Amino acid sequence: MKIRYILLMFLLVAFLLGASGCTDSGSSGPEVPAPSPDVPAVPRASGTASTETLNETVNITGESQAYPVYTAAPAAEGKYPAVVLIHSFNGFEPGYQEMVDRMAADGFVVVAPQWQTYSRSPPDSEVEALVRNSVSYLEGRDDVDSEKLGLTGFCAGGRYTMLFLPQIKEFKSGVAWYGFPYSGGSETQPNEPASLIDQLDVPMLIIHGTRDQASNISDIYRYAGELDAADKYFEMKVYQGEPHGFMIKDGELSESFVAQDAYGEMTDFFNRTLN
Fold it and tell me: Residues in domain Dienelactone hydrolase (predicted)?
């Protein structure tokens, strides 16, 4: 009798426990408790995936001949600032194409005219016509904000930037890399960039290295002094120990700390002066 009574009591307790909800709820596992307010949350990854770009080579005319011009732009629809990039005296090396692609991924429409297609040293008038027609090409694109055009160039392209920025008024700012402000005075290159300082109306960033043997840093400091005396707005970034052409190594875009920092200086300057 006692055994039957104990058995009945056991069955009653089991029934009550089941009714109280201590059974499988149908979930695949136990619920994870909410974190305590005192426990810091794991930080989420920052940044976004690289922007898709559209790349092609188009033909743009100089004074009389058509030149190949490498172009890159963000793939997403919109109106973007645009930049004309003038490569160095060593030609349109692969590193410049990579730089154009990076700038497009960073939100710029970029055109890079291959100005040495027919001559290693064409007249300034030919290069100027090519740059002006590159501007016209950009102004005709649906993805370009024609009020936000910039100019940049390297080595000989740095000289062209110093030379054309005061003359081509569509440009709102420019970045001159290791240029030659006092190169000129010949039949094909009649003007020194420094002689046009009075015509400069937009901001310029000058990037240079102290060990530049082709374009001595002393000329850059002199040029900067003349810009300042004329009350022309400029910024200057000088890298101690860097030689001429430090952005391109063996034809490729350098991945050194200085090169990456200098690239950031350029894009930041354009973001500030074109937007």
Answer: 69-273
